[in-house]
Amino acid sequence: MGITVQNITGSTAMVIWPKMASCADTFYSVMYHPNWNSMLSSYSRKSFQKEERVPTTRSSFVVENLTPLTTYIVCVTCQSANPSSDQCRVFNTLERDPASASNTKKELALGIWLTSSVLLLIIAAILLYGCLHILCRRRRERLQGRNGTSEQDHGKAWTKSKVQASEELGRQSQLIQDTEEKHPGGIQLATIIENPSACKEPVMPTSKNQERVPMTGQCSAIN
């Protein structure tokens, strides 16, 4: 068939074959396999690792994803049949080309950059969550402290008012006791002074010709 292999690099090769008018099928079968050993391998279709179907309108195909510094065999058949030796060619790939190595390095650097960016975002999110949690907890503690202070102030005020009331009652009791000691018979007078309403009791007449006088001597004394 006059198959030729051109433009061989470390990972690609172009296979060219002449058009065959007798090919009744709608495609060509391009088969290739690495590490070919003609002494141990046969030309059976099962012996080939890769197979590509190319329309009959084309007479060339670029084989890709090859391994550098590797011996390959490529065969082209008109139909889906086992190829013969005159339909095959053996070629060797070159070393890895600089462009491919550069692309690999770029892909590796891009992968490392993406991974680092994701890790940094995760760390930043964790730190932000921790700061917000600490701020919320401190705010909660301040509010609880204010509420506790208000309750303590209220309790102190209530206790103070209770103490003042007790002291006032004590002073009144002491005043009454002092009055009794100075005026033994004047307790009624002190009672009247404390309760002026006692002076409003009705008076009873002693006789028809006598003037009305109040029943309580203390009220008369006050009047």
Mean pLDDT: 75
- What is the tally of helical segments? 3
Structural class: alpha+beta
What is the class of the domain at 4-93 in the CATH system?
Mainly Beta
Q: Can you summarize the main beta sheet?
A: 4 strands, antiparallel
Helix content: 40-55%
Q: Largest sheet, order of strands side by side?
A: 4-3-6-7
Oligomer: single chain
General shape: rod-shaped
Kindly summarize this structure in a few lines.
The strands form 2 sheets. This protein has a 4-stranded antiparallel β-sheet, with no helix packed on it. It is an alpha+beta fold and 223 residues long.
Description:
With 223 residues, the chain is an alpha+beta fold. Among the domains are: 90 residues, Immunoglobulin-like, CATH 2.60.40; 45 residues. Helices cover 44% and strands 17% of the residues. The chain has 3 helices and 7 strands; from the N terminus they run βββββββααα. The chain has a 4-stranded antiparallel β-sheet with strand order 4-3-6-7, with no helix packed on it. A hairpin with a 6-residue loop joins β1 and β2. The N and C termini lie far apart (154 Å). The C terminus is likely disordered.
